[in-house]
Design goal:
Layout lengths: L1 H12 L4 H16 L3 E7 L6 E7 L10 E2 L4 H9 L3 E3 L21 E9 L2 E10 L7 H33 L3 E4 L1 E4 L2 E9 L16 H25 L6 H15 L1 H14 L3 H17 L4 H27 L7 E5 L4 H6 L5 E6 L7 H9 L3 E3 L13 E5 L4 E4 L3 H21 L16 E6 L2 H9 L5 E5 L1 H5 L7 H15 L4 E4 L26 H6 L1 H14 L6 E5 L5 H20 L9 E5 L2 H5 L1 H7 L2 E4 L1 H9 L17 H16 L3 E4 L7 H10 L3 E4 L4 H10 L2 H12 L4 H14 L10
Parallel strand pairs: 9-10, 10-11, 11-12, 15-16, 15-22, 16-17, 17-18, 18-19, 19-20, 20-21, 21-22
Antiparallel strand pairs: 1-2, 1-6, 2-3, 4-5, 5-6, 7-14, 8-12, 9-13, 13-14
Bound molecules: phosphoenolpyruvate (PEP) and magnesium ion.
């Protein structure tokens, strides 16, 4: 059964559109389960009823004609119960309904399973038999498993289908994702191609067959050249078997029949070169995989690899012909900081990522740059919308492809409102961060890019609470040298001097991967991250802190901060290295003071040892993004669980209060530099808790300052007490937004 499951899912994944998906399902399920009938009903988005969309075994003319409301008939009952119904004699069930158009009266046994995607019943998959018999447990389990696996594919195919038919007429289509960076962007989609993989090449046709053939031939030539060159370079290091592999690759590419097969598809079906190549190569892969001889089975991986190489060349040929449009909205399967950095800043206005969530690092960078972003837009058929007009609603996490004039007009108004609010907040830049009754809190900024510096200074930042040093590392293709780092850090320190700049030591791992230092792990957020990496690589750590200290020469505004500290040992080990770097520099003749050394509290163990850590550190700062993910056991980068990631969860609030109390008991200043500090409502709670420093992106700073200056400390204290009584994050969020509205700060909430 597992083999059948896999092959059905694979086939469905490769299907070109929704009707093809449905046909494959009904055909293959009937064949594998050996039933007389297999049918699929899908929910009609407009009417909410479930319509027969494909069948093998019932009268084909009834497709599109039979429809049931939730709760109506057996299919409608599967929908409302959200579980399978397995009947020996369907006609004896009280909910049974007979549709003469289907010819259904001939079938007795009935098994229907719901197809559920993100808690919504998309449809029902039904098998039927003529005789009276109950489907056995194995059959039921098979259908349940298959329905669960197909739900995502069907949802995606539905979304793609909506766009494909609408595409020619340029009618508006809406897609949902996660609101990741506030604001609205109206512009053109620019797609960042995912890494070459044969099985994810979308179905696409070409306009100009001759040009496509030419593209294909050029890619073949380039791939052949590349393989030859690599084989040549490595020839002394390869054994005979490995050398033979290179020869085999080249002879496959030289083999005319492969090229002929691909060209036939480009000519005959007007397929794009990438799709034609992927189809042909996948067929070869499957043929190898099905062979009984294990040697040949293993060759399937080689064929796949060769396929991916050529695909990469096809992509490169296409990419090199592309320019970034004005008002570019960058879209990719998993956007990275490096992809972002490739686009000229003046052209980039928004981001959309199919994977990831509001707390992924690319979303944090988007917020810092003031770029509206939607993450986790899983159903968006992004490969098909390159160049299309798009509206990104970063407040609600919504996207519109081919927006109507009316929709555009509505969003133009929101953009204008935003500008108005920003102008209104401009005057705050020169005013201190204090409450209406004079309680002073430092409002600092989080930085990473050079662009942040200008924005931060314009907005009156009083210091830097978190400079993410990994950002310049992410934008390079090798580790920056000590001198290169010194120059980068100097710019930051100089720009803010005499204000303090907190530089965090390299925090890679998790969702921050350096292309030139890959970390392959099954559980990266619990793996080799942050301080764990740099303590294992003292040469990297020492080089970095030396560069920071040298950069601070004559300015003395540097603070060093350690990420991901989970116990006292890590702090002590790191302190020794920092002290060693400092004394080496002094020996070398540098007149540098030893900078304050602080730590981030972002791991639950550090919350419970906050007092001991605070006694040994010069300052502590909560990384609430990670702390939330670890306290709630919710991967911050996973869009599937994004709805249960709550920075205002009661457990998180209690931990935050515990940390600030523990820090103050040790007479140590306590800050916070997670995204919560940049949320006006969250910031009021943090001020009430007693946080000394709130560090946030420059975009949010004026909003937080406006909120703080409008309210007294006593009011915040009672708001905090009220929130700490509540048991659910939603209640806390609601309480905060009602409070902001009540005190006349509604404009600081998101529009609409
Ligand atoms: C945090 O975890 O809250 C934090 C500020 O660090 P980062 O988001 O870079 O992991
Ligand atoms: Mg962190």
């Amino acid at each position: 059964m597992l083999g059948s499951l896999r092959s059905i899912v694979q086939q469905v994944n490769a299907a070109r559109d929704l009707p093809a998906v449905l046909d494959i399902i009904v055909h293959r399920v009937r064949e594998v389960m050996d039933t007389r009938v297999c049918s699929i009903y899908l929910r009609d988005k407009q009417s909410g009823s479930y319509v027969l969309m494909a069948t093998e075994g019932l009268n084909p003319d009834s497709v599109g004609q039979v429809s049931l409301e939730p709760g109506e008939g057996l299919v409608g009952n599967v929908v409302t119960r959200e579980e399978p119904i397995n009947l020996e004699r369907a006609e004896a069930h009280p909910a049974y309904q007979y549709f003469p158009a289907t010819g259904e009266e001939r079938f007795s046994a009935f098994l229907g399973t719901p197809i559920i995607h993100h808690r919504n019943v998309l449809g029902v998959l039904v098998v039927q038999q003529a005789e009276q018999r109950r489907f056995d447990e194995g059959e039921e389990a098979f259908l349940v498993t298959l329905s669960a696996q197909l739900a995502g594919v069907i949802a995606h195919a539905e979304a793609t289908g909506a766009l494909a038919t609408i595409g020619q007429q340029r009618r508006e289509a809406k897609f949902d994702g996660i609101a990741a960076s506030p604001g609205v962007a109206i512009g053109r989609a620019h797609i960042v191609a995912p890494p070459a993989s044969l099985s994810t090449v979308p179905y696409s046709c070409c306009m100009d067959v001759e040009a496509e053939l030419e593209l294909f031939h050029q890619a073949l030539v380039a791939a052949r050249e590349e393989i030859r060159a690599v084989g040549e370079r490595l020839k002394d290091e390869l054994n005979r078997e490995e050398r033979a592999l290179f020869d085999a690759y080249i002879s496959m590419l030289d083999d005319n029949s492969l090229a002929v097969e691909v060209c036939d598809r480009i000519r005959g079906q007007q397929l794009s070169a990438s799709r034609a190549w992927a189809e042909v190569m996948l067929e070869h892969v499957r043929r190898f995989e099905a062979m009984s001889d294990s040697y040949f089975r293993d060759r399937a991986a080689d064929v796949r690899d060769l396929g991916a190489r050529v695909l990469m060349h096809l992509r490169q040929q296409q990419q090199s012909e592309r320019d970034y449009p004005d008002n570019a909205i960058l879209i990719g399967e998993e956007l990275t900081a490096a992809a972002l950095a490739d686009v000229p800043r003046e052209k980039l206005i928004g981001l959309v990522s199919i994977k990831g969530s509001a707390n992924s690092h690319v979303a944090i960078i988007a917020r810092a740059m003031g770029l509206p972003a939607v993450m986790g837009a899983q159903e968006l058929p992004f490969e098909r919308i390159d160049g299309a007009e798009l509206v990104v609603d970063g407040y609600r996490g919504e996207l519109y492809v081919h927006p109507t004039t009316e929709l555009r007009r509505r969003y133009d108004c929101i953009v204008e409102e935003e500008r108005e609010l920003a102008r209104h907040l401009d005057h705050l830049a020169g005013l201190p961060g204090e409450t209406a009754d004079g309680h002073r809190v430092r409002l600092w900024v989080n930085t990473g890019l050079m662009a942040d510096v200008v924005r931060s200074l314009e907005r009156g930042a009083e210091g830097v609470g978190l400079y993410r040093t990994e950002v310049p590392f992410l934008l390079r293709d090798r580790f920056p040298s000590e001198e290169e780092q010194r120059e980068i850090y100097r710019e930051q320190l100089e720009a803010f001097a005499p204000r303090p700049v907190t530089m965090r030591t390299l925090d890679i791992g998790g969702d921050k991967a350096l292309a030139y230092f890959p970390i392959e792990e099954t559980n990266p957020f619990l793996g080799w991250r942050g301080i764990r990496v740099t303590l294992d690589h003292p040469e990297i750590f020492l080089g970095q802190v030396r560069a920071m200290m040298k950069a601070s020469l004559g300015l003395d505004n540097l603070r060093i901060m350690l990420p991901m500290i989970s116990g006292l040992g890590e702090l002590e080990a790191a302190r020794k290295l920092v002290e060693r770097a400092h004394s080496e520099l002094v020996d070398e003749g540098y007149d540098i003071v030893m900078p304050p050394l602080g730590i981030m509290i972002e791991v639950p163990s550090a919350v419970y040892q906050a007092r001991e850590l605070a006694e040994r550190a010069d300052f502590i700062s909560v990384g609430s993004n990670d702390l939330t993910q670890y306290l709630l056991a919710v991967d911050r980068n996973n869009s599937r669980v994004a709805n249960i990631y709550h920075a205002l969860h009661p457990a998180v609030l209690r931990a935050l209060r515990h940390v600030v109390d523990a820090g103050h008991a040790a007479d140590t200043k306590v800050g916070i530099c997670g995204e919560l500090a940049g949320d006006p409502g969250g910031a009021l709670l943090l001020v009430a808790m007693g946080y000394d420093v709130l560090s946030m992106n420059a975009t949010n700073l004026p909003r937080v300052k406006a909120a703080m200056r409008a309210v007294t400390k006593a009011d915040m204290d009672s708001l905090l007490e009220q929130c700490l009584e509540l048991h659910c994050p939603e209640q806390i969020e609601e309480t905060l937004s009602s409070y902001l509205k009540r005190v006349g700060l509604k404009s600081l909430l998101q529009p609409m």
